[in-house]
Amino acid sequence: MAISYNALAQTLQGRSTCFFFVPKALCIKQRSRSTVVFASNDKNIIALQSKVDNLLDRIKWDEKGLAVAIAQNVDTGAVLMQGFANREALSTTITSRKATFFSRSRSTLWTKGETSNNFINVLDVYIDCDRDSIIYLGTPDGPTCHTGAETCYYTSVLDQLIDDEASGEKLASTTLYSLESIISKRKEESTVPQEGKPSWTRRLLTDDALLCSKIREEADELCRTLEDKEEVSRTASEMADVLYHAMVLLSKRDVKFEDVLEVLRKRFSQSGIEEKQSRSK
Amino acid sequence: MAISYNALAQTLQGRSTCFFFVPKALCIKQRSRSTVVFASNDKNIIALQSKVDNLLDRIKWDEKGLAVAIAQNVDTGAVLMQGFANREALSTTITSRKATFFSRSRSTLWTKGETSNNFINVLDVYIDCDRDSIIYLGTPDGPTCHTGAETCYYTSVLDQLIDDEASGEKLASTTLYSLESIISKRKEESTVPQEGKPSWTRRLLTDDALLCSKIREEADELCRTLEDKEEVSRTASEMADVLYHAMVLLSKRDVKFEDVLEVLRKRFSQSGIEEKQSRSK
């Protein structure tokens, strides 16, 4: 089995793994940047190799030597695809940081993206309580599905049951991204003359002054729930208002919520908002 | 196979399935509430039964009659657990709206929560492009893992590789919830006297006036990216600032981001923010 333990040492040294994925004790601040203390000399590489082997020994592989491997987008939480991993696929994923699976039909190892270039860059790997199910948590370079869809899960059973003619193309979206999708649809509609009273989202999308006054107003109301010690349920409700109106602004500017989360992830994995803000005070 | 198609008809009629999970064509507005047009008479129930059977026939069950079934939290996106489904488990999940699996070790059907009462209430079911992998998208009544953890995925491979003494208890969190967790840790620290300059988050957590002035300021800066037609990348960056500071306020008030998403989901599944806002204008 050809595994690059040098690459693994680099993985553990990688700046991008710090903050979110490396225990705090192993991070030291150095010129405002976090660096993992992990020398990649031969001794450490041998120790690493032994640790990876121990870890692979702990997985409960099934009678075919496989475990379920789920690839998930670290920013959006979307389940991108699901395959199976054997020992080699898991160790390759850990060392290469590219989501790698074992193809049951072709009986070969395959790295997602090896033909499409849409790799899934793995930031960490999680194992479940039974040690027979694995999550590859990472960032996709492009659409994961071979059909060009963002994820492989775009067929809703309820859609199919209700409507024989359903397109079968509705991503398994969580609440935030369902809302983003709705706002996006309103945006498309807002360019077409509509009969009747326009929806609130369409009004916001076509009136920048209204949208901005609402965002400032809702941010103020959120603050007042703290300042005036209002009921806690008001805070959740006002934050929902802030989020919804700000998401309309994002849509207006063609910014995806995923882009915002990427900014947050990168900030924290570098010097962190906290340091940035402290320095500027 | 004992399946309640009456229950399924109710599922499809259920108000909570509307907006997010039912094609728009099947929703009509009635007294400001969305109602699915789906009469549950005998004829429709027989038609439904046939549709469910057709759908079950389309799944590529493996040689043991199983497919992978992943339960995901619709609000947070967290992968809660992974099991396997056979025909009966999937049809029971569709009709009962409780995530149901087939236990390979006990060779029986089991509904998550049947002993713990921590059911996973399924809002929709998705099938992947290969039709051999299923997502149950829903809301958990409580912790999903039998250990009491929120999800079954709390063992980080990188943690284990770096530190033999790692507690092994770090949930597979996406960016937003990693940030929430960091803020929460700063909040715990903020009650203990610390040496040196406090972090920015700790300063915000202990100074309501500073926190609220920052939230108002960041909301204003977000608006100005639209008003002043600034570069689009500024919008993502300012939204990240709004989100981070607002999340500090949520933490301060013991409100989880999940609670905010629940508010948004419920609003939209009832009359929707848009209608609510339109009525108030």
TrEMBL record, chains A, B:
User: Has keyword Nucleotide-binding?
Assistant: yes
**Membrane among the record's keywords?**
no
Keywords associated with the record = Amino-acid biosynthesis, ATP-binding, Histidine biosynthesis, Hydrolase, Multifunctional enzyme, Nucleotide-binding
Q: Where is the Phosphoribosyl-AMP cyclohydrolase domain?
A: 81-154
In alphabetical order, the GO MF annotations are: ATP binding; phosphoribosyl-AMP cyclohydrolase activity; phosphoribosyl-ATP diphosphatase activity
Record-level GO BP terms: L-histidine biosynthetic process
Catalysed conversion reaction: 1-(5-phospho-beta-D-ribosyl)-5'-AMP + H2O = 1-(5-phospho-beta-D-ribosyl)-5-[(5-phospho-beta-D-ribosylamino)methylideneamino]imidazole-4-carboxamide; 1-(5-phospho-beta-D-ribosyl)-ATP + H2O = 1-(5-phospho-beta-D-ribosyl)-5'-AMP + diphosphate + H(+)
Q: Which is an annotated Pfam family here? A: PRA-PH
Q: Which Gene3D superfamilies match?
A: MazG-like, Phosphoribosyl-AMP cyclohydrolase
State the similarity comment.
In the C-terminal section; belongs to the PRA-PH family. In the N-terminal section; belongs to the PRA-CH family.
What name appears for this protein in its UniProt entry? Phosphoribosyl-AMP cyclohydrolase domain-containing protein
